[in-house]
Write a structure and sequence with these properties.
single chain; about 1000 residues; mainly beta; Immunoglobulin-like; 24-stranded antiparallel beta sheet
Amino acid sequence: EGTVRGTVTEAGSRRPLSGAQVAVVGTGLAAVTDAAGRYTLVNVPSGNRRVRASLLGFSAAERAVVVAPSTPAEADFALSAAAVALDEIVVTGTAGAVSRRTVGNAISTINVAEVSHVVANNSVTELLQAKVPGMSVSASSGAPGTAGNIRIRGVTSLAANSAPVVYVDGVRVYSGHAGNFKNSYQQPSQDQSVTAGGGGQAVSALDAINPEDIESIEVIKGPAASTLYGADAANGVIQIITKKGKPGEQKLEWNARVQAGSSDWALARPANYTTCDAAHQAAAAEWFGCTSVPTGTVLTENFLDQVLQTGGLTGYSLSVRGGGQGYSFFAALDDTGEDGVFSNSTSDRTGARGNFTFYPTDRVDFSVNLGYTRSRTNIPLLDNSSGAVQGALMYQPGRTPLPGRVYGLGNTPAELARYENSLSGDRIILGTTLNFRPADWFRNRLVIGGDLNAGRAVRYVPRNDIGLLPTGGQVTEGSPRQTVYSLDYAGTVERALTGSLTSALSFGAQYTTTTYRNAIAQGTNFEVGKASTVSQADVLRGWDEFNQTRSLGFFGQEQLGWSDRLFVTGALRVDNSSVFGQNIKQLYYPKLSVSYVATEGPVFRGRSWLDELKLRAAWGQAGNAPGSVARETYYIMATGVDASGQEIRYPALAQIGNPDIRPERGSEFEAGFDAAFLGNRLGIEFTAYDKTTRDALIPVPIPVSEVGIPNYSQLQNVGRISNRGLELGLTGTPLQGRALTWDTRLSLSTNRNRIADLGIAQDTIRFGAGPTGSVSQLHVVGHPLGAFFVRDPVLGADGQYTAGPVRYLGPSLPTREASLSNTFTVLGNLRLFTLVDYKGGNYLLNATEYWRCSQAAVCEEMNDPSVPAERKKLLTSVALKDADALYTQRADFVKLRDVSLTYTVPSTLARRFRTDRMALTLAGHNLGFLWKGEYTGLDPEVSFAGLDQPGADYAWVRQDFFTMPMLRRITASIDVSF
């Protein structure tokens, strides 16, 4: 026996590659490279051996060595970045390793470990932004800790969820609304505690996961690919794979990161204007600023700076990775804190992770993965509320503040700081995976896990006279508990049917139970101004929330392979769930796909200009489950007044259940190809898809004669929704050399969303709070979901403006997205990274400008002497619902999302500090707009309603309503490996 050692570097730049696996072919011996790219294999049998090095995103390489007991054998590798890696292992839902060449659908992989070297992402939402063609990640607000929406290949549902399901190391996890109360002008009430109307931001459970713990993310995009995941996977699947150790002799690899930075409101602050006319000058006590200036003087001031501060960010992480013969492990600790630009805007997260894998024999391995997070988020008073942004942007220059108020703000910063909307929580994600191979042809995998979330939500409104409702004060406390338990078994039997024909028969079962509990206590009206607890209030209320979902599914799949280049796959999934109506027993979802590696066939083999070409096509179906109580008729306790004027409590009908309700059925066909050129330095991934949601859930009006109450509806599976689009990914290395290496990636995607059929007599559905529904958005057959339908004001013969006819304007969600990233590596030590993000084709209602112009008359147009008086009359005399065409604007933009500069200290110098690797990074996030099109507001990316919640009053509303824009963040960090 002897030793094999060496280094693994990147071809061209010679940058050391850490985390590469180096194995002796035909044996179980393996090692992993350290931060300096070094590895050592011990106890290698003597003789001629082949050693293989592999790493995600790079082409694998093999070297022949002669192993002798006396002298260590040397084997160095220079791996080239692979634009297309057909032999890369991907997650498909079956047991064992599956190479990309066998898969007939598109799967996108994000190499998070590599991305984290150049970009400081504070959340999973940030990590996913602009990384995958066809996946749209829309942030809603710049407030730290608030969530955005993730959509894959368009919006698929009107009343059910449109977000993908998420797995962490094979364990199903909860990724929706984490349980905070909305920043609504409405007070939380029964059946509205989380999704109350009026807008406001939300915290996502997905962002409790530390990005530093993630190795890679795989995105499975639609029903054609997600059939094996069952009745709630029609919107796609996100597989998060956390970092793990690798077996083999190696030294412990410690990694530490320290980062610090600042964030600021980088966009221009809108100025406020007042025209000092005769009326203002006559009211000197009310308009002090107009008393000593000529009539017609325009006062202009900016008031936001009174309440804005420079935010800060700190982050610390420490991890260790190791292993040996028969075991491997990864452990990490982290702490991150971020302060926003308002005093009560914070987001803090502390976590720990331990991943352990054991290999008792060459046929059995099992792992235990444990992640813990403690987090706390404070959301300031923003959006549609009487907060600092609204006060500063609506205050009229020159106006005398009310007694006790602050000039330029109305309310005082101290009073605003007393407002609290916080969510604190603890989360544990625990999973155990057992892989058992009783024979070379039979593989089994069992995953058992749980996701346990326990939180405390507080919304405190102090007693006040600034118009913050309820003015007598209110505190609402909740204790949201969300648990997900899952069991997943999969087996695969592989056989060679002939010399060229192989068979892989897979089968499996999944069981998942999800439980949500929340107990809410609310106190309203404080007699004492500083009171802040429920028990100190005059009016006490309490209610609880509970729902549970249990689902069971089975699948079978057969894959036939011919000459390792043609693969035909057919599968069938059967599901049953507690959310199905009482009359629905089980549902079936089929799948069929084909993959052909054309460059290994007779037509394209040996073409010097073409390195890889895989043709693929897939068709499949998957479900999108309704809400957990959609099949039930239930009541809530309501408050009213009897004939004598006394307040009474009575049961009120809340929902009419549907015993025939079932999941929406997503059916999708996709086709495309993966190709590599120029020595695998240029890669193209192209996909066209056509996705239809049948049995779409639609709120069908119920006649009064059936329920005795007007304005009630029932969710029924009667609609049909269409999504079509194209996806293109270009990956290339235009330059590869010691002096300069240039890596680039371009992603393009389109989406055409349409309502094909509502299944009801009307062709239009209104949504939003109130009897008339949304101000300017509708669900209309033949148009996108939630599209903008606006009215132009018309001047009548009486000289008054009224609403004109309703006309279609455009979609509310992006129809085109693109991103361009570039990495320049100079002399192997200096790396410059840039990411540019584009979204377009959609519109946004600039409600902020409406209120500034029409209600407060502080916008520039209302105070510009050159603007005709008739135009000013138009702006002030017509309600928004009658003139929304004036304020609904195209929301196209190009944003410089990320820029970073990383310097890796030369290894000779790093070793003087007793480290293997030392890197310094300066990074900027949301640095500004390169182009903002027609939008006149601050940020066309925002939405005052935050994270979408199916069935919520404002789930579809897209407005900029005093919403905080994305903050610019600058950080500096140092990474050390030793």
